[in-house]
Amino acid sequence: MRRGALRSFGLPAPDALIGIGVVLALAAVPLAGPGTYLLGFLFTIFMYGALAGSWNIIGGYAGYLSFGHAAFFGLGAYTTALLLFYSGWSPFLTLPIAGALAALFAALVGYPCLRLRGPYFSLVTLILGLAMYSLTLNLPFTQGASGLFLPFLRVDIYTSHVIFYEIMLGLLTIVTAVLRQITRTKMGVGLTAIREDEDAAGTLGVNATRLKLQAFMLSAFLTGLVGGVYSYYKSYLDPSFVFATSISITIALMALFGGRLAWYGPLVGAVVLSIVNEMLTTQAPPQTARIVFGALLIIVIMFLPDGLISIIQRRLPAFVLRRAKQAAARDEIIGNR
Amino acid sequence: MLYELAQSLTSGLLIGGALAVLSVGFSMAWGITHVLNVAHCAFAVLAAYLGYWALNRWGIDPLLALPIMLPAFFLLGVAMHTLLIRATARRAHDLGLATMVLTFGLGVVMENGMLLAWTPDPRVLKTAYSALTLRVGPVIVQAPHLIAFGLAVITIGALYLFAERTFMGKAVRAVWQQPMGAALSGIDLDRVTTIAYGMAVATAAVGGVAMSLLYTFDPATHLSWLVYVFLVVILGGVGSMLGSALAGLIIGLIIGISSVFIPLAWNNLVLSGLLIVLLLLRPQGLLQR
Q: Could you give the domains of chain A?
């Protein structure tokens, strides 16, 4: 009840307060003057956190596992890169275009493909990612396999690292806030219903087709934004990299690994796996890291279908669990209204 | 132009045979065990590498290595089904989706394992008969194409006879049609699905060797082969052997015809588009009633 009382005074929920605190602390990190290595590493973690979170809207909440999110990521990356390359417009200004194009593309392919259930949808998205790769490779204005070289930000290297760090942190915050907000709205309840039993959801008045399409477009929009920043950060991009199936796999794996049913699951997965990846790639060839990733995917699906956070949730003290349950029940009622 | 078309139709038809044998196991596993083995083509590429290895290390022709590979791959399939898939099935809410994620992980492990073992350089199989050709009227038929087609005919024919004539084959078909009914008539579901799964993986080995006779390959090739396989299985209907055979030939012909009119680089794009259109119009397969 105390939580409800706080809310009526216009204060956010405790988990949101913690989240805001963490974001502010992270935003202040560059003030302590860490090296470019640490900033770059944190940028990577934020980026995968944002990507896994975006993926989770359709893959986790709605249960439509997309194996082709690299298509949206690459589309966003190429949009801002081409606009910079040909028109000289800053990617920070053209980001919304990148997201909008990714969402538009999601609408075009999602409208037919979201009618496919389960494995059919996943395989088509996998193929879609491969098709986008072939397309970019062969289009005349993308410079194909030789890739695009982009101008750097006109500041020194350290400052540019700080700028990208803050922007990616901002994107991660937006994605996570959206992800959390969805669970508190009618949309989240509808998506859960679709995941559990789509036909039953339909009979209860959930407009499954529209809801799935909205979720897919939102997911693509956010993924496109991240891609749009990434190309500028790397200042070089080629199709084999931004449309790589390994990116689609990594995103999906992080969300599945962390736990796709809760809003913080993809974030947990992205942080843990990014650290694992960083430790592995400094010690061994990148293939070894991917073998470990694949093996982790196998282990998670075999033994922890609900992800890493299901262990944590089970280990929590009883009173926390009880309060969480009460809060969840209340949120569900709020969401239904 | 007409001559060119006849030429590409012939080679397309022969390529179609290789696609059919590559796909038949995938279709079988999906239909009978409800497992979407995304790693199916990774097994095929593994077989292609083993054949390449046998030839260049020991001078054994891949076709002669195949009889040794078949039981090995069968056991691999049995092991995979027993150790991985059954354990997953026990916990999963949705078997198709869970096993797809599982085999996806397996595919990633296999692809990168092969990258470590054999580097990403594309390989070309150069056998004693690689350069041999056969003239049929105005059309030139390459010997590897013909051999790949022969492999497909033998394998699919043997599978068909197995399904129609043997008790085990009938049990497999019964499980495909009506698992509950099959179990009620005393068929051991676990045993039948495991054997069917082993056979599916064994046919992937044949498919891989057949494809290696026609195309260059590298560890990442399995994903583009998967596009073909998926296309064939959707066209032919999930679980249908003859459907796969027929659909393989049709896809081969389409590849043959499109190679005349469309640059090779756009080929994958055309096939992906075709697949999406097909899924929208008839997700249950063209050849399925």
A: 14-336 (1.10.3470)
Are A130 and B87 inside 8 Å of each other by CB? no
pTM of the model: 0.83
State how far the Cα of B86 lies from the Cα of B108, in Å rounded to an integer. Answer: 20
Q: Is the ipTM of this complex over 0.90?
A: no
Work out the minimum CA distance from B277 to partner chain A, whole angstroms: 9
Fold of B2-281: ABC transporter involved in vitamin B12 uptake, BtuC (1.10.3470)
What distance in Å separates residue B165's CA from the closest CA in chain A?
Answer: 32
Please list the residues that pair with A270 across neighbouring strands.
none
Could B101 and A65 be called an inter-chain contact, meaning their C-beta atoms sit closer than 8 Å?
Answer: yes
* A151-190 b/e (C-beta count within 10 Å ≥ 16 → b): eebeeeeeebbbbbbbbbbebbbebbbbbbebbeeebbbb
Q: Residues B151-169: pLDDT tens digits?
A: 999 999 999 898 888 888 8
Contact A183, A324 (CB under 8 A): no
Q: In chain B, where do the E strands start and end?
A: 133-136, 139-142
B262 touches A at CB < 8 Å: no
Residues of chain A whose C-beta is under 8 A from some C-beta in B? 63, 65, 67, 109, 112-113, 115-116, 118-120, 122-124, 126-128, 130-131, 134-135, 137-138, 245-246, 249, 253, 256, 285, 287-288, 290-291, 293-298, 301-303, 305
Task: Report the mean per-residue pLDDT for chain A.
Answer: 84
